[in-house]
Amino acid sequence: MSRAAYDEIADWYDEAFGSQPFSPFHHFAISVVLGLVGDIANHRVCDLACVQGVVARKLAEHGPLLPA
Q1: CA angle, 59 as apex, 56 and 61 as ends, to 5°?
Q2: When you count CB atoms within 10 A of the terminal residue's CB, does the N or C end of the chain come out lower?
Q3: Three-state SS for 63?
Q4: Do residues 25 and 18 make contact, with C-beta atoms less than 8 angstroms apart?
C-alpha cells in the first residue's frame, strides 16, 4: 500500500469515527475489550492494528507491562 493510500484511509477513519481520543465508538470498543481481557496487570499486551492507539492507551492504564 502506498503512503498516499494509507493517508487517505487514515483521513477517512478520523472522519468516520472521530479524531478525538474517546468518541462513542471508542467508548464502546474499549468497554468490550476490557470486558474480554480481564485482569491484565503484570502481563504483556500487544494491540495489533491499533489505528490511533486509543484502546492501547486505555489498556496501559490497567497495568500491563510495556515493551522495553
Answers
A1: 120
A2: C
A3: coil
A4: yes
